[in-house]
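Input (structure):
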């Protein structure tokens, strides 16, 4: 990433080791629908647990019933413990957690990494009480903590959130840790070893402008997400009434494409049929919950027409075609642009109409204003390369993923739209053939046992100067067979190669060398594949 991009690029994800959130968490939080009004109480929370079961939400994956601010009294007791509000929760929090657990669900609670929580009534926060509060919550059977950022006294964010993460871990109870830091200190750069998710933005509201602006802020951060730790663009507004059903379908599609937590924010005791149809779309949920754990990335964005692609565990892709304009538009992309190739045809399943078609290369749809068409794209049989010596940039990859922008053929990576790079240049040497990547990047080629050798010059493109650092790696059927070691922008090109005799698949990987992906314009310069 270059200096004109406002966010700091995320390092490759390294998840907290509590075994939770291997796919993004799914559940409910009451705040968007009730805030701190009197209707937020024990009966309401237990009613939501009932609705999870009765309305089939538990069956499609929703698990956590979470309560937000205003559950406690404004003061701790004489021993310094938090006290549940006896009016809202006359039987206490443990009784509510037990009720939720009896339904086969999990229970979540709220606090703030400050002296007080966010509501104006000023309920006690967790700053300085981390161990005491964590032990109390564990004794109540809490399974999830949303930890907000209000009244933090200017204490370093990483220090505050790490203290509570350590306290939760010390209880010995598995408690999913949702860091709600609002993105103020770029938690995507440091929270993956501490929390299971981290808010990347300010609070969402129930409007198109709020939702789509938050999506824009979260889209560039894909490198930070992965099993055990997720970028969190805030809760779902689906069903709260401030957007149309078309806009809510876009909301749900984009959150799933971004591998975001799916936390319902509307009152599920009396939902509309349209709301339930959106929230229970198992085709879309399967994209969010895909075990590969990749957040989707933007392929193209121009004139309010946005295409995203997300790698899936079955080797296919999910694709969103979003029309952010005020009138119906045609949104298009291609198999190559979304990072697939090497097959003669591809199945396209529309995840909202549930109809399946096929394509040999083009993908497109007429999309209504503020709407999204979402496809699951599955490759057909793959074709190996013909005998001979091939420049790899002349062949179709079977899959391509990149840290910024698309992988480019015969030019460097310009980070944004296709074909926005320059001549491939490493250490002053120029190359007419090659692949312009950007860490973190993975390129896969189907060989079918027909190829024997691979070789390439590798290096960071001269356009970044001495900046950036990466590692180039070559995998044969999942086994590492060549590694460049750490390469910086100050280094001349290196040559790496591998024996591929009998290999079914070639994978070219560029990592960020452990220090984030800024300026990591990685060139596979004149990469050659020998096949027989």
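Output (sequence):
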């Amino acid at each position: 990433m270059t200096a004109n991009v406002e966010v700091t690029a995320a390092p490759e994800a390294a998840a907290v080791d509590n075994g939770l959130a291997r796919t993004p968490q799914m559940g409910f939080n009451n705040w968007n629908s009730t805030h701190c009004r009197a209707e937020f109480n024990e009966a309401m929370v237990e009613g939501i647990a009932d609705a999870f079961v009765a309305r089939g939400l538990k069956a499609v994956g929703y698990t956590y019933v979470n309560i937000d601010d205003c559950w406690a009294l404004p003061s701790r007791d004489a021993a310094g413990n938090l006290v549940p509000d006896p009016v809202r929760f006359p039987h206490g929090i443990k009784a509510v957690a037990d009720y939720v657990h009896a339904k086969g669900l999990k229970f979540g609670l709220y606090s703030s990494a400050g002296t007080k929580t966010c509501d104006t009534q000023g309920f006690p926060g967790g700053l300085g009480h981390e161990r005491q509060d964590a032990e109390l919550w564990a004794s109540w059977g809490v399974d999830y903590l949303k930890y907000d950022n209000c009244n933090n006294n200017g204490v370093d964010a990483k220090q505050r959130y790490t203290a509570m993460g350590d306290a939760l871990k010390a209880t010995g109870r598995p408690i999913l840790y949702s860091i709600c830091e609002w993105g103020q200190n770029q938690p995507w750069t440091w929270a993956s070893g501490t929390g299971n998710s981290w808010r990347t933005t300010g609070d969402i509201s129930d409007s198109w402008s709020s939702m789509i602006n938050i999506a824009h802020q979260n889209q560039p951060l894909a490198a930070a997400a992965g099993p055990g730790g997720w970028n969190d663009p805030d809760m779902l507004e689906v069903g709260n009434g401030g957007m149309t059903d078309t806009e809510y379908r876009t909301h749900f599609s984009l959150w799933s494409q971004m591998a975001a937590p799916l936390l319902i924010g509307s009152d599920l005791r009396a939902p509309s049929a349209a709301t339930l149809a959106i929230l229970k779309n198992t085709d879309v949920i399967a994209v969010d919950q895909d075990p590969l754990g990749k957040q989707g990335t933007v392929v193209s964005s121009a004139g309010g027409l946005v295409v995203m692609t997300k790698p899936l565990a079955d080797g296919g892709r999910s694709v969103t075609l979003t029309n952010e304009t005020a009138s119906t538009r045609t949104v298009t992309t291609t198999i190559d642009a979304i990072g697939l190739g090497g097959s003669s045809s591809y199945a396209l399943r529309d995840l909202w109409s549930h109809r399946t078609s096929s394509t040999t290369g083009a993908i497109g749809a007429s999309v209504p204003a503020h709407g999204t068409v979402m496809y699951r794209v599955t490759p057909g049989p793959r074709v190996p390369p013909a005998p001979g010596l091939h420049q790899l940039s002349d062949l179709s990859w079977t899959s391509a993923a990149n840290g910024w922008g698309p992988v480019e053929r015969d030019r460097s990576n310009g980070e944004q739209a296709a074909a926005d790079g320059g001549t491939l240049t490493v250490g002053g040497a120029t190359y007419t053939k090659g692949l312009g990547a950007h860490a973190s990047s993975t390129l896969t080629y189907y060989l079918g046992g027909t190829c024997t050798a691979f070789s390439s010059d590798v290096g960071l493109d001269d356009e970044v100067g001495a900046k950036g650092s990466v590692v180039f790696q070559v995998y044969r059927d999942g086994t590492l067979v060549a590694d460049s070691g750490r390469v910086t922008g100050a280094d001349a090109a290196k040559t790496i190669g591998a024996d591929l005799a009998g290999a079914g698949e070639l994978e070219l990987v560029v990592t960020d060398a452990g220090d984030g992906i800024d300026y990591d314009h990685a060139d596979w310069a004149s990469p050659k594949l020998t096949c027989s």
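Notes: The CA atoms of residues 13 and 224 lie 5 Å apart. The first strand starts at residue 26 and ends at 29.
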